[in-house]
Amino acid sequence: MGTVDGVLLLAAGKGERLKPITDKIPKPLIRIYDIPIIVFPLYFLAKAGFKKIIVNLHHLPDELEEFLLKFGSKNSIEFIIIREKELLGTGGTIKHVFEKFGFSRILVINSDSVGDFDILGFVNDSQKFNSIAHILIYKDRSVGGIELQNEIYVNIKGEGKGGDYAFCGVHIVSRNILDFLGKKNTIPMCIVRDGYIPAIASGQNISYSIHNGLFSDAGTYERIDKIRAFPKSFFKEISDYFVLA
Questions:
Q1: DSSP helix/strand/coil, 32
Q2: Which of 13, 22, 184, 237 is most buried, with most CB under 10 Å away?
Q3: What pLDDT, on the 0 to 100 scale, is given for residue 160?
Q4: Exposure of 213 by Cβ count < 10 A (0-12 exposed, 13-18 middle, 19+ buried)?
Q5: Which residues neighbour 228 within 8 Å (Cβ) at sequence distance 6 or greater?
Q6: What kind of fold does domain 6-241 have according to CATH?
Q7: Which of 50, 64, 47 lies closest to 10 in space, CA to CA?
């Protein structure tokens, strides 16, 4: 699919900010209008034609794996499950996937990223640039940590630390990121802190597309409330796709 030869859906987190519900339910299976959070990114991946998806699991993995396998069989999606005994973090998981599967470029999306993403358009945009990563960003100064310098360079300051844009948790990562992630042997690793920021500091380009539609992550109760305020048509589209009760 374009220049992407692998897809990774990140679903291992403990959902600490959504306790106590995540003590018993893995965050990706928390429902918004009866739709599990993980179904939102899955819908837009499937809409773009991606039917083979790697998913990493850690917290309450049995329930989540059972859901994915049933969902995949009904929606013609092949899930490759990676169970992490220890949380590798976003950077650690991306490093592991590159090393295990030998991919050149992978599309990565957080399982709690909710938005009307044009994934195929995003992949096509990434082909215009010779960059170590291509990220999807959203104009939201309240959680902004990304400052635009020019069309192929961003300054990532971290969430809430300046900049008008927020990272959507959707990105295409080149295997060359291993030059930076490989320098750290401890886990968990963060793809931004341990990959992108050192890459920028060394002179590497990180390109971007700007998402102008709907977006919020589902990491807190407040952000879930923000998602609930999305137009009803958005949920109708996803609900029609979600065939499991």
A1: strand
A2: 13
A3: 66
A4: exposed
A5: 32, 33
A6: Spore Coat Polysaccharide Biosynthesis Protein SpsA; Chain A (3.90.550)
A7: 64
